[in-house]
Amino acid sequence: MSEKLPPKHIAIIMDGNGRWAKSKHLPRSSGHQRGVRSVRKIVKHCAKIGVNTLTLFAFSSENMKRSDEEISVLFKLFLTVLKNETKKLKDNNIKLKIIGDLSVFTPEIQSLAEDAQEQLQSNNGLNLVIAANYGGQWDITEAAKKIAEQASTGGLNPQDIDPALFQKYTSLAKYPQADLLIRTSGEVRISNFLLWDIAYSELYFCDTLWPDFDEDCLNLAIESFHSRDRRFGKRNGNT
Ligand code: IPE
Ligand code: IPE
Ligand code: MG
Questions:
Q1: What is the pTM of this model?
Q2: Where in 20-67 does DSSP place strands (E)?
């Protein structure tokens, strides 16, 4: 593993739970359950190696189109995780932020989510961001809505709207821009995950299915990140 500093912000599209289960002749629910194990490992590892922010795509706005049965499994799992993992996160100095349109979740999940974020408020280690019923397009349109409201009441001059101002209205405004975006399971697409925030992210795709993704897989992704020449439009790192 490289001695270099890890990326400040890693974002992961945790994909492949269903295919993992299928390969083992198990129900899809087992794949999602095993996926939680990978989440635990990766959160712990990111905290250990000093990542500032880890954003995990747990449930997309489009995942609401899945069967009622699968949605119910995913909601129950979210509830169980919120109930059982908050104390562990607290003990590991991890702060939690949940982004997405939470209105689709049951009142119990919404209140557990609120409590968990509140309880972890004073922690100052890894920032763990969970994207639940999240869509990158939703995030951008929500920001646009807030800006339009401000402009219409005279609180904001439309001429002052620029990328820096727009950023302030997005879900991840308080976090560093995503340095590294990882997607597991061999799919090479964004599936409406972070859009605004990945403008200059390094992209890393691997074939490993999420329930098999572990610390070594993450280290490989970070190694790949360190081999990239991030030019940000310049001719090399400096000019
Ligand atoms: C990712 O695994 C988890 C969620 C989308 C909630 P999938 O459920 O998409 O698994 P595959 O892609 O069918 O293997
Ligand atoms: C993206 O995976 C969402 C999550 C991993 C939470 P999907 O499996 O839903 O994406 P598509 O449908 O293959 O693009
Ligand atoms: Mg999938």
A1: 0.97
A2: 53-60
Instruction: Give the sign of the dihedral formed by CA 212, CA 215, CA 219, CA 225.
Output: positive
pLDDT band at 151 (very low <50, low <70, confident <90, very high): very high
Please give the CATH architecture assigned to the domain spanning 9-135+178-227. Answer: 3-Layer(aba) Sandwich (3.40)
Contact present, 216 and 239 (Cβ < 8 Å):
no
Which residues share a beta bridge with 134? 60
Is 52 one of the catalytic residues?
no
pLDDT bucket at 2, cuts 50 / 70 / 90: very low
Q: For residue range 37-93, what is the model confidence (pLDDT) as tens digits? A: 999 999 999 999 999 999 999 999 999 999 999 999 999 999 999 999 999 999 999
Q: What number of other Cβ atoms are within 10 A of residue 156's Cβ?
A: 16
For the chain, the domains span: 9-135+178-227
Has 15 been annotated as catalytic? yes
Ligand 1 pocket test target in 12, 13, 14, 19 with most atoms within 8 Å of CB: 19
**Residue 134 DSSP one-character state:** E
Which residue CA neighbors atom 14 of ligand 2 most closely?
A: 191
Number of H helices, E strands in the chain: 7, 6
